[in-house]
Automatic annotation (TrEMBL), chains A, B:
This is Rrf2 family transcriptional regulator. It comes from the Bacteria. One of its GO terms (cellular component) is cytosol. Keywords: DNA-binding. One of its GO terms (molecular function) is DNA binding. The lineage of its organism: Bacteria, Pseudomonadati, Bacteroidota, Flavobacteriia, Flavobacteriales. Signal peptide: none annotated. It holds the Pfam family Rrf2. InterPro entries: Tscrpt_reg_Rrf2, WH-like_DNA-bd_sf, WH_DNA-bd_sf.
Length: 137, 137
DNA sequence: GTAATTCCTATTAAATCGATAGGATTAATA
DNA sequence: TATTAATCCTATCGATTTAATAGGAATTAC
């Protein structure tokens, strides 16, 4: 299941990408428009800023803006920051690898083989889609 | 993340599929061999039996056996029983559809579009793989 | 009739998730 | 300079889910 955090984050990024002009977009505006609890969204925006997707301006007339072009922002990267591993088991994760405690040898594990395929296909989608694709049309 | 329940369930099914002869396989044997807590595995086997993947024999020399051929058991079906929806958001789930409470119109939702692609690619893998594929070689 | 097994329900401890609270800091502007 | 409006930051809370355990009932082989 996709967490609300990730879903809200993706919606917020899309909203900013769609916004016209170069003025920063405010949390309160996104929150109202996308039905996202404002305080919750605050913490998500903070994460997105700290991980290099957004820039911010403080104080009156402040807000958030994209640092990179929408076409440069891969969904896979956003997902990793907000959701964590893309793989369904840690032992097939490229960026968050961990050994399973119940498997003496993961190459013998039937689940491992299956989950590599799932990971590869999911990754294909998430690498091919950028923020531009989400906000387009 | 794949739950332990699902992972254990898939391992247990694989173990039974690999077992030779037509005698029922016992929980205690699977539990030891696959490092799965026995009591936890008990409840998983029960679920798999009630959902039509396994048959059981009670009492001494009892145990579990496959009801269908391994090649007939699609991973997608097992996953739905043990893990629930395959889709990452309920609003793109084929078997567990639910409307999102934050989306007035899901066809306008950028996340929706992305998650349909993820679902379709995951489904492709889980439909193409059967228990035979997991237990083979 | 005894031992071995599945069957069933309930419970628990820990982790995670979604959301909120309360203020500190910064900047525009009147 | 004072006020207002925004981000920033840390902590916390309640609900849900997850992984696992407990304890015994029912069934069957021998």
């Amino acid at each position: 299941m996709l967490s609300k955090k990730t879903k809200y984050g993706l919606k917020a990024l899309t909203y900013i990408a769609k916004s016209v002009g170069d003025v920063p977009v405010q949390i309160s505006e996104i929150s109202k428009s996308e039905n996202i609890p404002q305080k919750f969204l605050e913490s998500i925006m903070l994460t997105l800023r700290k991980s290099g997707f957004l820039g911010s301006k403080k104080g009156k007339h402040g807000g958030y803006y994209l640092i990179k072009e929408p076409s440069e922002i891969k969904m896979a990267d956003v997902m990793r920051v907000l959701e964590g591993p893309i793989a369904m088991v840690p032992c097939v994760s490229l960026n968050f690898y961990e050994k399973c405690d119940d498997c003496p040898d993961e190459h013998e594990c039937s689940v491992h083989k299956l989950m590599i395929q799932v990971r590869d296909n999911t990754l294909k989608v998430l690498r091919n889609n950028t923020l531009e694709d989400l906000s387009g049309s």
